[in-house]
Specification:
single chain, mainly alpha, Heme Oxygenase, Chain A, globular, iron, EC 1.14.14.18, heme binding, metal ion binding, Haem_Oase-like
């Protein structure tokens, strides 16, 4: 039995998607205000999240359900390692540690992998499809805001083995729709995707303190004051 999981995920996470984009750190980012220390902390946190997710999906690559959405070309761990080396130097492994929010996120990924592997579809969808959808926009913002140019620091957004991102997203959605699940399981996956958005939001919110110190409370308030109805600047990059 199959359900239209891709549509359920897109429709069922719209509110969470909008809420995530309206977190102060993200709103500042989308407006081109990126503070390097906050950003490199985010990269470190994402490294631990993706390491956990890719470790578990690798273990479960022959699982009846997980195997259908196992796409190694999406993996971000090595790309994040390149970025961490860029921001922290060769000794980066001794410089980084997951924040409290990242630790909770990682723990949840390991928990669902052990007890409800089908819910990994929610975490995979939330991170990877978002990366593919908005990655190029965010890459350009980061390059301009931190004066990076093409010298490095944005490997996370580069999918070197995916030549056509739009076509790949369609392939990924088709894989979601072909998962051998019933309606009840699909609804649990949507619930988990909303929880994943919440975990991402907590990581973003942790970064606001450093950002405010760097740019000043008045500038931060100006950048984040208006709350738009619906999605923000990244809306065009629909998952």
């Amino acid at each position: 039995m199959s359900v239209n999981l891709a549509t359920m995920l897109r429709e069922g996470t719209k509110k969470s998607h909008t809420m995530a984009e309206n977190v102060g750190f993200v709103k500042c980012f989308l407006k081109g205000v990126v503070e390097k220390n906050s950003y490199r902390t985010l990269v470190a946190n994402l490294y631990f999240v993706y390491s956990a997710m890719e470790e578990e999906m690798e273990k479960l690559r022959h699982h009846e359900l997980v195997s259908k959405i196992y796409f190694p070309q999406l993996h971000r761990k090595q790309s994040l390692e390149k970025d961490l080396s860029f921001y922290y130097g060769a000794n980066w492994r001794n410089e980084v540690a997951p924040s409290q929010a990242a630790q909770a996120y990682v723990a949840r990924i390991h928990e669902v992998a052990q007890n409800q592997p089908e819910l990994l579809a929610a975490h995979s969808y939330t991170r990877y499809l978002g990366d593919l959808s908005g990655g190029q926009i965010l890459k350009k913002i980061a390059q301009r805001a931190m004066n990076l140019g093409e010298n490095g620091g944005t490997a996370f957004y580069e999918f070197e083995t995916i030549s056509d991102e739009k076509a790949f997203k369609n392939e990924y959605r088709q894989a979601l729709n072909e998962l051998p699940i019933d309606q009840a399981t699909a609804e649990k996956i949507v619930d988990e995707a909303n929880a994943a958005f919440g975990m991402n939001m907590k990581m973003f919110m942790e970064l606001e303190g450093n950002l405010i110190k760097a740019i000043g409370i008045m500038v931060f308030n100006t950048l984040t004051r208006r709350r738009s109805k619906g999605s923000t600047e990244l809306a065009a990059a629909e998952q």
